[in-house]
Automatic annotation (TrEMBL):
InterPro entries reported for this sequence: SQR/QFR_C/D, Succ_DH_cyt_bsu_CS, Succ_DH_cytb556, SuccDH_FuR_B_TM-su
Organism: Azomonas macrocytogenes
Names of the cofactor(s): heme
Cofactor note: The heme is bound between the two transmembrane subunits.
Protein name per UniProt: Succinate dehydrogenase cytochrome b556 subunit
Sequence intervals crossing the membrane: 28-48, 68-89, 110-127
Entry-linked PANTHER family: SUCCINATE DEHYDROGENASE CYTOCHROME B560 SUBUNIT, SUCCINATE DEHYDROGENASE CYTOCHROME B560 SUBUNIT, MITOCHONDRIAL
Protein location: Cell inner membrane
Record flagged with keyword NAD: no
Record GO biological process: tricarboxylic acid cycle
Membrane topology: Multi-pass membrane protein
Any GO CC annotation of this UniProt entry: plasma membrane
């Protein structure tokens, strides 16, 4: 019988204790924002269809858009769009050969987070 091989590698399965680099957080947020946009497009298309169906539908959508909860949802969708856009531009810049080093990746991630935060705050002011 074969004896089990003992590995000296550390095993950490507790995801709450793993410290990820900033580049990992920006990558994960980029994927999450893409999923939010995918789902949000369905909601927005439904609202568009309702608003174009009749005058009553337009009035109903207009009434919903004045609700604070709907404004929060719209702001969330716009936030996902803006983050996804800024992170996507970063990827396009990296495709040209800029920011591919470890230090460049960290710097690019910081820039994405700062620019996205500013744009999201400005959008929040615009929506509210």
């Amino acid at each position: 019988m074969k004896e089990a091989v003992k590995s000296q590698r550390p095993v950490n399965l507790d995801l709450r204790t793993i410290k990820l680099p900033i580049t990992a957080y920006t990558s994960i947020l980029h994927r999450v924002s893409g999923v939010i946009l995918f789902i949000g497009i369905a909601v927005l298309l439904f609202a568009l269809d309702t608003s174009l169906a009749s005058e009553e539908g337009f009035a109903r959508v207009k009434m919903y858009l004045s609700s604070p909860l709907v404004k929060l949802i719209v702001w969330g969708l716009l936030s996902a769009l803006l983050y996804h856009l800024v992170a996507g531009v970063r990827h396009l810049i990296m495709d040209t050969g800029h920011g591919e080093t470890l230090e460049g990746g960290k710097q690019g991630s910081k820039i994405v987070l700062i620019v996205s935060a500013v744009l999201i705050l400005l959008t929040g002011v615009w929506v509210w």
